[in-house]
Amino acid sequence: MKIISSFIKWYFYITTGILFVCAINMTLSREENIPSDTLWKILLSGFLTTVVTMFFLFRESDSKFVMGYRMILHYLALGIVMILSGRWFGWLEFDISGIVMMLLSVAVVYFLTSFAYYILDRKEAQEINQKLNEKYHDDGRE
Description:
The protein contains 4 helices and no strands. The protein is mostly helical.
């Protein structure tokens, strides 16, 4: 059940990040209308990148070196998935500038989702610590 919950959480973070980057890209390119199939493509690309993310999730036992290595591999895997998806969806020209723009977009989504995860995870940890403090300090224990 924890895997499903984690998948759903990451799916929402990633898909929101992709939607945000698509909105910026469409605004910069002055596209006024969004084709309806683009919304489905965003949802599908969110699903595909969430599957990749679930494979590369960090483990508490990972050393800093392993975590750094996982981050690099994770980003590269996301980049490959999004370049292939972008080509399939018609989101990019398959040339150097198109690939670089897609990798930059992936980097922005990576940063946004990591930042959101950090903020929300930190808040959740603080709430848990507060409840534990309340429980054990109210009992007269220390």
